[in-house]
Design brief:
Catalytic activity: NAD(+) + (deoxyribonucleotide)n-3'-hydroxyl + 5'-phospho-(deoxyribonucleotide)m = (deoxyribonucleotide)n+m + AMP + beta-nicotinamide D-nucleotide
GO molecular function: DNA ligase (NAD+) activity; metal ion binding
Structural class: alpha+beta
CATH topology of the largest domain: D-amino Acid Aminotransferase, Chain A, domain 1
Number of domains: 6
Distance between the termini: 80 Å
Family: Belongs to the NAD-dependent DNA ligase family. LigA subfamily.
Protein name: DNA ligase
Binding site for Zn(2+): 407, 410, 425, 431
Bound molecules: nicotinamide-adenine-dinucleotide, zinc ion
Largest sheet: 5 strands, mixed
CATH class of the largest domain: Alpha Beta
CATH superfamily of the largest domain: DNA ligase/mRNA capping enzyme
Length: 818
C-alpha cells in the first residue's frame, strides 16, 4: 500500500465508522453487526499505527463514539467516561496481559472479571447520600442529564444510608432493558402496528432519551453497576469498591470473579460462554480490569481507553444447517414475515430450528435457493439469522426461492408500498390474524380490559364465525345458549378436499365405546397409524376384548360402524373417520345418514352440526356425542366472559378511543385527544389545522384520523358500539378544568417550589388548562423558577429567550395570590 492509498483508505474507514456511530448512538439503529464494526475500527487503528502522519485528532479511533443530544441539559463529567479496548482473540488477550506486566514491571497483579452487559452506560452522582444527577456517557467528556428518566428505574437507590458514606461520589453502570420486557414491548408494538425495536440495547438507549418520564417508567428498565469513583471513598481495590456498592444497595450482578492470572481469566471466559444466555439481559463479552487502583494509575490511559482494562467479546456463534422450507407469517397488522425452517442445529446454547428472514429483500440479498445449506448465526438478536449460503453445497437442479404473492391466511393478493421492505395483506377486515389482532387490542388490559377473553377464546369465536369485528362481542349475549358446548379447538377435525368432515380415530373410538380411557385408546392408535382402516378396526376389536370392559356392547358398536362405513360410500382418510358416520352410529334412530352428511358439509365441528340440526336427542346420546368434542366452553366460562364484556361498557372514553385501534393512536395520544375534544363527534369533525395545533399530534396522525373516519364501516362500528352503551364522550363526572387561566400555555417548573410538590405542580398546571413540558425548549411560554434552579438550565433558558417567573408571580397569575 502506498502512503496515498493508505491516506485514502483511512479517510474512507473514518467516514464509514462515523456513519455507523451516528446510527448507533443517535438513531439507535444498526446496519452492520458489532463484529463487522469492530473490524473496521481495527483496520483503521492499524493503518494509523503504520502511518502516524495521517492520524488526526478527530479520527474515530481517538474519540468515544457517542454524542450529546439537543433536547437535554448537558454537563461535563468530573471523570471522563471512556470506551474500552476490545478483542475477539485469545492471542490479543495474552498480548494485553503481557503489556500490563511490562507496564508494571512484574506479574504481581490480579484481574477482576465481569460480564460485559450490553446496554447504555450511565453515571450517577450522589451528594450527601442523595442522587443529584444521572448523566449519559455522551461524547465521553460531557453527557446528557437524564435524571428524571433514570429515577423511574426501581432499583436505583435515591438515598444512600449508612455510616461512612462519602459526601460525594459517582457510580457507573449499565442501563438495560430485560429481554423479557423487550419481547413484551415488541409484541405490543406489533399489535399496535408500530415499527419493532431492533434489539434490547437500542430499545434501552431510545427509552433513556425520551422526553416523557411517564413513558419511560412503563418500560421497566433495569441497571447493573460496576464502578465507584470519588475523592475519599476509602478503598484501594476494585473488589472492595464493588462490595461497597453492594452494601449501599446498588444492583451489582453477582457474576464477577477475581483471577490471579490470564489462564484463570480464560477459564472464566469459557465458563460464561454458554451460561450467559441464561442471564435476563444480553451480554456480549467479558471485561477484565486490573484490580489494584495504584497499579491502574501506573498504567494510565490512551486518548480513548484505559490501559488497565480490556473487553473480550464473544464472537457470534454460527453453524451450518439446511433450509427445509419457508413459512410466511401474517402479523396482526397484515405484515408478512418470512421465517426459515431449518434442520435443527445446536447454537449458542439452544437448538435452533428457525431463523428470521425479515422480508423479500433479505431473501434476495442472500440469493436463497430451495434446500440450500446456510450459515446461521446467533448474535445480539433474539431470533437467529441466516448470514449466507454455502454455495458449494447447493443441490444440483434446485430453484431460487420465489416469494409468495398471496396471503397464506386469506388468499388476498399481497401489496408492497413504495419504499417499504415488507409485503402486506390488504384484507384488513377479513384476514383472520388481522381480525384477531384488532380484537386482542380491543380487549387489552389498557383498552377495554376484558381479561376473560384470551387469545384462544377469541380465536375460537372468530373461526366459528361468532365474531368478525369487536362490535360483535356485545351481541354475544344473545347467543349465549349457542356458546354452551362450543369447541375450543379443531385439531381433531379434518376436512377432505371435497368438504367432508372427518374426526381423528382416537376421538371417534372414545365416543363409540364405554369403559375405555382416551389415553389408552390414543396409545393403541399410535401403534396402528398409517395402517389400512380395516386392519385397524379388526385390531381395535381385539383391544376391546383384551381390556375386557363391556365387551359385547363395544364390539357390537364397532361392527355397526363397519357396516355403515361400507354402505355409505364416503371417501376415506388415513387415521380419520367421517363425522356423519360416527354420529349416525351414536344417534341413528333420530336422523338419516344423508341428512348428517349434508349438514357436515357446511359445518366444522360436532357442536355446530348439532346446533344446525336441532335434534331431540336424549341425555345419554348427548353425553356420548360430547366425547367426540374438543374442550368446550362451559357455563362458568361463558358467564365470566359475558360479565367481562358487560363491565367493559364502563370504560372511559379515552380507553374506548384507544381500543378502536386507529392507526398510530397509542394510549397517550388517545388520552390527549379524548381530553381535548371530549366527544368522538368533535374529533371526527376536527380539521387538519385544529388537530395540528395540539401538542404531540403530527401529520401522520392527522392522516390516520381522517382516513379512519372516512371509512363508512368504521362509522357503522362506532354506531353499533354506541347502541350498546360504550362511552364516546368524556364523563361529566370526570374532573373538569379548575380554570382556563393557563389555557394553551406550555410551562416548566425548575428547582424547589414552596407551594407544590413535584407532581402537584404538573396536575395543577393541567387542571388549569396548561401543559407541562419536561425539558427546557424554545416552545415554553415560561419557566417557574424555584429555589436552587440549576445554573445550566437557567443559562439554557436565557440563551433560548424563555421567560423565568417566580413562584409568587405564577400564583398571582392563576389568581391564587393577590
Ligand atoms: N454495529 C454498529 O454499527 C456499531 C456502531 C457503533 C458501535 N458499535 C458497537 O458498540 C460498541 C461501542 O463501543 P464503546 O466505545 O461504547 O465501547 P464498548 O461498549 O465496547 O465498551 C465500553 C462500555 O462498555 C460498557 N460496559 C458493559 N459492561 C461493563 C463492565 N462490566 N465494566 C465496564 N464497562 C462495561 C460500559 O457502558 C462502557 O461504556 C463497540 O463494541 C461496537 O461493536 C456498533
Ligand atoms: Zn390475509
Amino acid at each position: 500500500m502506498t502512503p496515498e492509498q493508505a491516506k485514502a483508505r483511512i479517510e474512507e474507514l473514518s467516514n464509514q465508522i462515523n456513519y455507523h456511530n451516528h446510527l448507533y448512538y443517535q438513531e439507535d439503529r444498526i446496519e452492520i453487526s458489532d463484529f463487522e464494526f469492530d473490524k473496521l475500527l481495527e483496520e483503521l487503528i492499524n493503518l494509523e499505527k503504520e502511518y502516524p502522519e495521517f492520524l488526526v485528532p478527530e479520527s474515530p479511533s481517538q474519540r468515544v463514539g457517542g454524542t450529546i443530544t439537543k433536547e437535554f441539559e448537558t454537563v461535563i463529567h468530573e471523570y471522563r467516561m471512556l470506551s474500552l479496548g476490545n478483542t475477539y482473540s485469545e492471542e490479543e488477550l495474552k498480548a494485553f496481559d503481557d503489556r500490563v506486566a511490562k507496564g508494571l514491571g512484574h506479574r504481581d497483579f490480579e484481574y477482576f472479571c465481569e460480564l460485559k452487559f450490553d446496554g447504555v452506560a450511565i453515571s450517577l452522582v450522589y451528594e450527601n447520600g442523595k442522587l443529584v444527577r444521572a448523566v449519559t456517557r455522551g461524547d465521553g467528556t460531557k453527557g446528557d442529564v437524564v435524571t428524571e428518566n433514570v429515577k423511574t428505574i426501581k432499583n436505583i437507590p435515591l438515598h444512600i444510608k449508612g455510616q461512612n458514606v462519602p459526601a460525594k461520589f459517582e457510580v457507573r453502570g449499565e442501563i438495560f432493558l430485560p429481554r423479557k420486557e423487550f419481547e413484551k414491548i415488541n409484541t405490543e408494538r406489533e399489535a399496535n402496528g408500530e415499527a419493532l425495536l431492533a434489539n434490547p440495547r437500542n430499545a434501552a438507549s431510545g427509552t433513556l432519551k425520551m422526553q416523557d418520564s411517564a413513558v419511560v417508567a412503563k418500560r421497566r428498565l433495569n441497571c447493573y453497576f460496576y464502578q465507584l469513583l470519588g475523592e475519599d471513598i476509602g478503598v484501594n481495590r476494585h473488589d472492595e469498591a464493588i462490595h461497597l456498592l453492594e452494601k449501599w444497595g446498588f444492583n451489582v450482578s453477582p457474576t464477577y470473579t477475581k483471577c490471579n492470572n490470564i489462564d484463570e481469566v480464560f477459564h472464566y471466559i469459557s465458563s460464561w460462554k454458554e451460561k450467559r444466555f441464561e442471564m435476563p439481559l444480553d451480554t456480549d463479552g467479558v471485561v477484565l480490569k486490573v484490580n489494584d487502583y495504584d497499579q491502574r494509575e501506573e498504567l494510565g490511559f490512551t486518548a480513548k481507553i484505559p490501559r488497565w482494562a480490556i473487553a473480550y467479546k464473544y464472537q457470534a456463534e454460527s453453524a451450518e444447517s439446511e433450509l427445509l422450507s419457508i413459512t410466511y407469517q401474517v402479523g396482526r397488522t397484515g405484515a408478512i414475515t418470512p421465517v426459515a425452517n431449518l434442520a435443527p442445529v445446536l447454537l449458542a446454547g439452544t437448538t435452533v430450528k428457525r431463523a428470521s428472514l425479515h422480508n423479500a429483500n433479505e431473501i434476495e440479498r442472500l440469493g436463497l435457493f430451495e434446500g440450500d445449506t446456510v450459515m446461521v448465526e446467533k448474535g445480539g438478536e433474539i431470533i437467529p439469522k441466516i448470514t449466507g449460503v454455502v454455495l458449494e453445497k447447493r443441490k444440483p437442479g434446485s430453484k431460487p426461492v420465489v416469494y409468495i404473492d398471496h396471503c397464506p391466511e386469506c388468499e388476498s393478493p399481497l401489496i408492497r408500498k413504495e419504499g417499504e421492505a415488507k409485503h402486506f395483506c390488504p384484507n384488513f377486515k377479513g384476514c383472520p390474524p388481522q381480525i384477531l389482532g384488532r380484537i386482542e387490542h380491543f380487549v387489552h388490559k389498557r383498552a377495554m380490559d376484558i381479561d376473560s377473553l384470551g387469545t384462544e377464546r377469541i380465536q375460537t369465536l372468530i373461526v366459528q364465525r361468532y365474531i368478525g369485528n369487536f362490535a360483535d362481542l356485545y351481541e354475544l349475549e344473545n347467543k349465549a345458549n349457542q356458546l354452551l358446548g362450543l369447541e375450543m379447538s379443531q385439531d381433531q377435525y379434518q376436512k377432505s378436499d371435497d368438504g367432508y368432515l372427518f374426526i381423528s380415530l382416537p376421538k371417534a373410538f372414545f365416543a363409540l365405546t364405554e369403559g375405555l380411557s382416551l389415553a389408552s385408546i390414543q396409545k393403541f392408535c399410535e401403534r396402528y397409524t398409517e395402517q389400512p382402516l380395516w386392519e385397524v378396526l379388526d385390531n381395535f376389536e381385539m383391544f376391546i376384548r383384551t381390556n375386557n370392559k363391556k365387551v359385547a356392547q363395544n364390539v357390537g358398536t364397532i361392527k355397526k360402524l363397519e357396516e355403515i362405513l361400507l354402505s355409505s360410500h364416503l371417501p376415506q382418510m388415513e387415521d380419520y373417520l367421517p363425522v356423519p358416520v360416527v354420529m349416525n352410529v351414536l344417534i341413528g334412530n333420530w336422523i338419516s345418514l344423508e341428512k348428517l352428511v349434508e349438514a357436515s358439509l357446511h359445518e366444522n365441528t360436532v357442536h355446530s352440526i348439532l346446533l344446525k340440526l336441532n335434534l331431540p336427542i336424549t341425555r345419554e346420546q348427548e353425553d356420548r356425542l360430547k366425547k367426540m368434542k374438543a374442550n368446550t366452553f362451559q357455563e362458568g366460562v361463558i358467564s365470566n366472559m359475558l360479565e367481562g364484556i358487560r363491565a367493559s361498557k364502563e370504560q372511559p372514553f379515552e380507553k374506548v378511543l384507544f381500543a378502536l385501534g386507529i392507526r398510530n393512536i397509542g394510549e397517550n395520544t388517545a388520552q390527549i385527544l379524548a381530553r381535548h375534544f371530549k366527544k368522538i363527534d368533535e374529533l371526527q369533525k376536527a380539521s387538519t389545522e385544529q388537530l395540528l395545533a395540539i401538542n404531540g399530534i403530527g401529520e401522520t396522525l392527522v392522516e390516520s384520523i381522517h382516513a379512519y373516519f372516512k371509512d363508512p364501516e368504521n362509522l357503522e362500528t362506532i354506531e353499533r358500539l354506541k347502541t350498546h352503551g360504550l362511552k364516546f364522550e368524556v364523563d361529566a363526572t370526570e374532573k373538569p378544568l379548575e380554570s382556563e387561566s393557563l389555557k394553551g400555555m406550555k410551562i416548566l417548573a425548575s428547582g424547589k417550589l414552596n407551594h407544590f410538590k413535584r407532581d402537584e405542580i404538573i396536575d395543577f398546571i393541567e387542571a388549569n388548562g396548561g401543559q407541562y413540558l419536561k425539558a427546557v425548549s424554545k416552545s415554553l411560554d415560561f419557566i417557574i423558577e424555584g429555589e436552587d434552579m440549576g445554573p445550566s438550565k437557567k443559562e439554557k433558558a436565557e440563551k433560548l429567550g424563555v421567560k423565568l417567573i417566580s413562584e409568587d408571580e405564577f400564583l398571582q397569575m392563576v389568581g391564587k395570590k393577590s
